[in-house]
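The instructor's notes for this session suggest beginning with a concrete chain rather than abstract definitions. Hand out the sequence below and ask the class to guess, before any prediction is shown, which regions might be ordered.
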Amino acid sequence: MKFRSRPDPDFHRALRRAVDRYFALNRRDRFATPGLWLKAALYASGLIAGWLWLMAGPSDFIEQLAAYTLFGMASLLLVLNLAHDAAHNALVPSRRVNRVIFCLTFGTLGVDAPLWAMRHVHSYHLYPNINGCDADIDHNPFLRLSPNHPWRPRHRFQHLYAPLIYMLVNLHAALVQDAIYIFKKQLANLRDIRHPPSRYVGFVVGKLAYVGLVVAAPILASPLPWWQVALAYVAATAVMSLFFVVTLIGTHFADGNAFPALAEDGTIEGSFTSHVFASSLDWHPTSKLAVALVGGLNAHVAHHLFPTVSHAHYPAISAIIERLARRHGITHRRASWVGLVGAPFRHLHRLGQTNAV
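After discussion, reveal the predicted structure:
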């Protein structure tokens, strides 16, 4: 599978020069900045505080829910701001240190880090929004995410029931999806998937550690009935999942984003760069506050064009991209956060209509 065209050489040459100039003038490298580490320390403190609060045995359901929400949101923010950069070896120069941080941080969400990296780095990042090639849009029995997917009568209502599905994203990823993917031999563009025996051992150990520390231990420590603690855990994961969805899912699943079909000869229309612009919707990509909150995933064009650069540099890089895109006549789609929240539901509503493309 490959793109039919090469990137615009003038745009790419100008972009590379401008980004290199940014690093040179600011005397920085592509890795994390002190500000990023300070932010990570803040989120890590929230995660530790949330877990210690759980282990202190909250005396009522609301307090239990608050403790789980603090733990869960801190964990998610730590993954978005630390683990994601580490997955792309953009956090520190050492690949080994990146991997350790990546695996430990993702473990707090209950998600198997190597499986996530397999899908994210080797499938989604290579072919975003292309069914049969992007694991993030394939294999969804409930939602029609691409106009190239078959329509089913239930899809008429998918924009209405989607929030209920989105609330289960984290719970499903931690307890169901990984258990399915670890045994898959084929997934989207990935073929003949094989894992060494140690990988299965690590998978089981990671899941047991998560369930033990995040579910079982708080149940044992709490004076509340076990089902109330479990309910608080599920409710907190729903809050985390909705935050993830409303801030990030619209960057790719939005009305107006491109979902090109794979040609019979295995080629994709355009170039990778033109596809990134066409399939992405940025929101406040030059805002340091937005980038600090979601780890730069609001600046999706910058991330896809410079995945091995830490998100700490995305506000500056996004400003460069905006300027050069205007100069070269390239459409750079941007939205406010409010606009982003509605975009994926408009997309689902449109694709829910019979034979909508």
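Then share the key points. The mean pLDDT is 92. The radius of gyration is 21 Å.
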